[in-house]
Design goal:
Layout: E1 6-13, E2 16-25, E3 31-39, E4 49-55, H1 64-68, H2 72-78, E5 81-85, H3 124-138, E6 143-153, H4 155-166, E7 175-178, H5 188-197, H6 201-208, H7 211-217, E8 224-229, H8 233-236, H9 242-251, E9 259-264, H10 271-289
Parallel strand pairs: 4-5, 4-6, 6-7, 7-8, 8-9
Antiparallel strand pairs: 1-2, 2-3, 3-5
Catalytic activity: S-formylglutathione + H2O = formate + glutathione + H(+)
Enzyme class: hydrolase
Function: Serine hydrolase involved in the detoxification of formaldehyde.
Length: 291
């Protein structure tokens, strides 16, 4: 069982409140976990608000999204909370977890590890989908967990798409992504992560952790928006593969109203790109969160 929340800091922003919390996470093997939570001004015990979960990319922490993403203003105007989890466990002390920037600390890939070396701590899927809603609700924070959507950037875009498509009972109403790792079983980042975290490697990952594989098999209606930049070096290096996801979606008979993939001319992989289209994404989710 996870420990209760401890408030670390709080700041007023766009008439709402941005608060950093920490707690000892059972899902992450008893390690201390941080997250940030933005509550709009209309949130109260008598008015629980919908929530957007933002998953950040490789090397990021729980802070990158709210500092650089330009999400808080649009979220405040729509009366939507935003949850900013971390990207991995911190301080597990596993041999080799800090050797490379794209694996281990800061690179949890939003999965539940099955390799025994990592399985005690690297359970970001459970941490985000189950643990955080439970501990936040237990703290009496006024969020309506029946109205959740999810979005993310790069590795976090991968996490958002896969958690949306694989979650039971459609936990999330919609998903969007900036420059997502869309077909990770066929790119170097994903191949490396899955070989390390999963006993079955890439073959195991296809079942739950590859958005392109998941959309191809999905039979339910979906609401997905993806943006990527044509000047993104990681796109050019075939780490992202958004066209693979789009083809799989179209082959599965999803039209542009259910799955929209937009190429943005001249934009790169940075938060300059994300902040430009942040409002688009918040308003996209508002259509479903406020319905």
């Amino acid at each position: 069982m996870s420990d209760p929340l401890e408030k670390v800091s709080s700041n007023k922003s766009f008439e709402g409140e941005l608060t950093k919390y920490k707690f000892k996470s059972a899902a992450l093997g008893g390690l201390s976990a941080n997250f940030n939570l933005f509550l709009p001004t209309n949130a109260s015990p008598s008015n629980k608000v919908p929530v957007l979960v933002y998953l950040a990319g490789l090397t990021c922490t729980e802070d990158n999204g709210f500092v650089k993403g330009s999400f808080l203003g649009p979220a405040s105007s729509q009366g939507i909370a935003i949850l900013f989890p971390d990207t991995s466990p911190r301080g597990a002390g596993i041999q080799g977890e800090d050797v490379d920037w794209d694996f281990g600390t800061g690179a949890g890939f939003y999965l539940n590890a099955t390799n025994p070396k990592f399985s005690a701590h690297y359970n970001m899927y459970t941490h985000i989908a189950l643990e955080l809603p439970t501990v936040i609700e237990a703290a009496g924070i006024p969020i309506d967990w029946k109205r959740q959507s999810i979005f993310g950037h790069s590795m976090g875009g991968h996490g958002a798409l896969t958690m949306y498509l694989s979650s039971p009972q459609k936990q999330y109403r919609s998903a969007s992504a900036f420059s997502p790792v869309s077909n990770p079983t066929k790119c170097p980042w994903g191949e490396k992560a899955f070989a390390g975290y999963l006993q079955g490697g890439v073959e195991e990952a296809k079942e739950k952790y590859d958005a392109t594989e998941l959309i191809a098999k999905n039979k339910e209606p979906v609401h997905i928006l993806i943006d990527f930049g044509t000047a993104d070096n990681f796109y050019k290096q075939n780490q992202l593969l958004p066209e693979n996801f789009l083809k799989a979606a179209r082959d599965a008979n999803y039209d542009e109203f259910q799955v929209r993939v937009r190429s943005q001319e001249g934009y790169d992989h940075s938060y300059y790109f994300i902040s430009t289209f942040a409002s688009d994404h918040v308003h996209f989710h508002a259509n479903f969160l406020k319905a």
